[in-house]
């Protein structure tokens, strides 16, 4: 059991360091993934007020989560301010509780205040708590927001995951290089 925990920690650290070392590039493939995720979220009527009121939003088009009592999740996304991509975000999550399986999802965070957006951009922004259940591509994920200035919504894309856990998500932000324009 101890070796599983140590292995999971090493894996998360490896994945995190590998992504941090990658150059921040927003190419056509990534732009298409963000556009597809945004189209899916915009199709949900209940999210219309969030799109209208948000100062900015971070879109994570493809995240992965796995767990067997202890679990983790990983994903990369992009911050959009005024419709323009301003940087990349990295999400790493650790959780514990009743959980078993593997799941793919997409996620969006809406920022309603300058202070919440600034905190996200400074890095080390954290969000906690979740519960979800999914089978194949049918599922629901509920993530309560403990911060009134940030709302998060998740769309399950596939997998098999039963979960009632407590955890924390950490987001790190990396601005695009000066002079680089997203397509």
Question: Could you characterize the architecture of this molecule?
Answer:
The chain is an alpha+beta fold and 183 residues long. The chain has one domain. It has a 5-stranded antiparallel β-sheet. The C terminus is likely disordered. It is built from 4 helices and 5 strands; from the N terminus they run αααββαβββ. The radius of gyration is 16 Å and the shape is globular. The longest helix has 20 residues. Helices cover 27% and strands 52% of the residues.
Topology:
Layout: H1 2-21, H2 28-42, H3 48-53, E1 56-81, E2 84-111, H4 114-121, E3 125-135, E4 138-142, E5 150-175
Antiparallel strand pairs: 1-2, 2-5, 3-4, 3-5
Structural class: alpha+beta
State the oligomer. Answer: single chain
Residue stretches low in confidence (pLDDT < 50, at least 5 long) are 134-140, 142-146, 179-183
Tell the overall outline. Answer: globular
In angstroms, what separates the terminal alpha carbons? 46 Å
The overall pLDDT, averaged over residues, is: 80
Q: What's the total helix number?
A: 4
Number of domains: 1
Radius of gyration: 16 Å
Helicity level, as a percent range?
Answer: 25-40%
Strand residue content: over 45%
Q: How many β-strands, per DSSP?
A: 5
SSE pattern: HHHEEHEEE
Biggest sheet strand order reads 1-2-5-3-4
Largest sheet geometry: 5 strands, antiparallel
